[in-house]
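Changelog entry: the Dynein axonemal intermediate chain 2 record was regenerated in this release. Current contents:
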Amino acid sequence: MEIKLEYVRKRSEFGRPCSFSDSLAEVTVDIPPDPSLAGDFIPQDPVDFAFQEGPIMAVHEVNTERVQVSVKGVNHVEGGWPQHIDPKNSELTSRYREEVEREDAYTRSVQRLGSLVEHCIRQNNAIDIYEEYFEEEEEEEEEEEHPSAKTISVIRDPNMTKRMATHISWHPDANRAVAVAYCSLDFQDSRKDMSFDSYIWDLEKPYSPELTLKPSSPLVTLEYNSKDWHHVLGGCYNGQIVYWDTRKGGLPVEMTPVELSHRDPVYGACWLPSRTGTECFSGSTDGQVLWWDIRKMSQPSEKLILDITKEDQLKKALGASALDFAPTMPTKFLVGTEQGTIISCNRDAKTPPEKIAHIFSGHLGAVYRVTRNPFFPKVFLSVGDWTARIWTEELMDSSSIMETKYHTPYLLDGCWSPVKPAVFFTAKSDGTLDIWDFLFHQKEPSLSLKVSNDPLLSLCSQDNGRILGCGTRLGIVSLLEISPGLCTMRKNEKTLTSTMFERETRREKVLQDKHRERLLREQDQARAQPEEQEDPREVFEKAREDFFSIIKAEKRRRGQEDPEESEEGEEAAQ
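Regenerated structure tokens:
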């Protein structure tokens, strides 16, 4: 049955306003109860009622429009001059200024204003409002803040074909921008539509790059010049060195010729603190370190072949996979190699073989990063294979003085904290960022944070140590803000860190001396014994007996010797 409601109204009443009035309530329909119908119903006993006291929640989604931010400048024009005086003409302005200074009104005004300014200066000097009254007293120990970090911004490769974020460099002027080098380091990666561009990003506008750098080959490394902020140095995948002037756009100002450049990708490029601010040097896996001047990039000004045999032969050179230079040591630099060796070089040496000063061996694989401690330049950090190691140049021919535990994933990058001498960061191939504070924990990191599901390839910290940039294999750069406890230097922290490094250095010296003594003792014993070779079975049997005798002696000392267990152990060993 179709239910239909018809509403009938005159045509003339359509559109007329409704008029409401107050009236008493009236009953329009009244249906009295019928007791005869009670037999058709079943009484319900007991009766349950549910009440919901909590507020009823509803889900709402709002998609707001993105605000478009634009950067605009203000052109200040000097004013206050009479109409007949041109402010750009220095002669007219100086002549008018002299005329005004000779007037009596000017003298009276200066005297009147001078007394007011003098009164204000004396009033300010009367008390120091920033004086610390209790600076010498020890501060009350507050609760230790739990180490933490949070992501504040994410920068993504704008291209559809994703590449690796191989290097990050912060702008020297208050870190207002960050330069990211994008390159695919996979062997023979020939994907179509792969861009060669790298980008400079403004942190206030992370959705679009501020400047697009267009090299002739993908960039592996990218560095700002600390003296001239507009100059950016890049090392290309094809071995060329390129530099940009950001004021002139994204096209390179000049680049090195291919025939005189590196033969392999440039994994390290650093600016040198010269007077002109135009000198730099680069290192590559072709085994060469080349020095350049951006004013004349037609050929390198100097060359060093990383041949540790000191024969200066390129076929025996070790490939440079990491490069570090500290302005506090202007003549020395460190080179990490593909073979796991770290080379300390001195540029001021007379001959090329003498420039290779010292060699540090300890890593089982390639050294992906080597960097000096910003507070103790003789102490440096290296990252490679499954560990990060700390070395000192005071021990030339020994192992590292400190190291992290062996991790399951590879370590691909690392850097020191610029504000805390014992804190450093490491990036792993499983996308985890580890923050170590060796002053408090040496076996486990103070904070381990899962940044991405992809490997972390590059790390770079701001000068204040608060913001850390992490680049991934898919070209995503995550900016992390670290908790204040990991980026604020505490009282006597530098002294305690120096003491720790000195203690570990002395310990390593003692171990090194004992190792040398043992080698000399073994050599003397080998000379004293006849040249007859021992039977390997006898050597094994003697070592087995010595092992079980040590076990028995230890059990006797603890009072827990069990003859049956020792016999069973001997039978199992046999």
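The longest helix spans residues 493-528.
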